[in-house]
Design brief:
single chain, alpha/beta, 6-stranded mixed sheet, 4-stranded antiparallel sheet, 9 helices, 10 strands, 25% strand
Length: 256
């Protein structure tokens, strides 16, 4: 089952009025994979993520998530799919007036009939899973940037999702916090078998945890490359991909 296709994007087009942001985008994400959606600023990474999560309509094509086309599905159908998914937004998107525990408990109270005791136990379990045991009563303002991301991840994992989407998870983090978050993502993928889809342009994360990827080319407004990031670096299909994957580094000859 681990090789089962969980996400299947077919000739997807995203447009805003007459402006076509992306066209003819196709790729697949296998169950249990860590998949990277990468590219430079303005290439459409976040817009693609919003289509996959049912937040933004596409202009054409299909985007199957767990067998449901998120382009043509009804709101009710999208809701059923998204209950099987979790999302970690850039800022963590925690409710500032609620404690960490209440933030994590929110989806459990909304979508389950668990008792208060069971919810408290699950909240404690999710916090321990992300390394925040004992922080139940803290407010988001009392947490560091990295801790907010971890708390947001704990909430994303509240309903034991099959898929977790990450929107620029390393944004605003120092290198150490970013590395710790990457390690946590790997641990969750390996221990829970959760399928991970990450929107990012951070090379350290791309090479550290990415197993498969799609590169969005802002100039072509389409897919510029697909495959394992490390393999794409070894055998870049074009200059644009090579320059993106070698930003800030030099090759063996010392040239940019």
């Amino acid at each position: 089952m681990m090789n089962q296709t969980l996400i299947d994007v077919q000739k997807l087009t995203i447009a805003y009025g007459d402006f076509v942001l992306l066209k003819d985008v196709s790729f697949q994400v296998k169950q249990g994979d860590i998949f990277i959606i990468m590219g430079g600023s303005g290439c459409g990474k976040s817009s693609l993520l919003r289509v996959l999560t049912g937040l933004t309509p596409a202009s054409g094509g299909k985007a199957f998530v767990a067998g449901v086309d998120m382009v043509s599905a009804s709101a009710a159908q999208k809701d059923v799919v998204m209950r099987r998914c979790g999302i970690l937004y850039q800022s963590g998107a925690l409710f500032s007036s609620m404690t960490v525990a209440d933030n994590i408990a929110l989806p459990l109270r909304q979508y389950t009939d668990y008792s208060d005791k069971m919810i408290r136990e699950l909240v404690a379990l999710k916090l321990a899973l992300v390394g925040l045991a004992g922080f139940q009563d803290f407010y988001p303002s009392e947490l560091s940037g990295g801790m907010k991301k971890r708390a947001g991840l704990a909430r994303a994992l509240a309903l034991d999702p099959e898929i977790v989407y990450f929107d620029e998870p390393s944004a605003g983090l120092d290198p150490i916090s970013s590395k710790l978050l990457d390690d946590l993502i790997l641990d969750i993928n390996q221990s829970l078998g959760t399928t991970i889809v990450i929107v990012t342009h951070e090379l350290s994360s791309i090479f550290a945890i990415g197993r498969d990827s799609v590169f969005l080319d802002a100039t072509k407004r389409s897919v510029g490359a697909r495959g394992n990031p490390t393999e794409l670096l070894k055998n870049p299909p074009n200059k644009t991909v090579y320059e993106f994957l070698t930003r800030g580094h030099t090759d063996a000859k010392g040239t940019k």
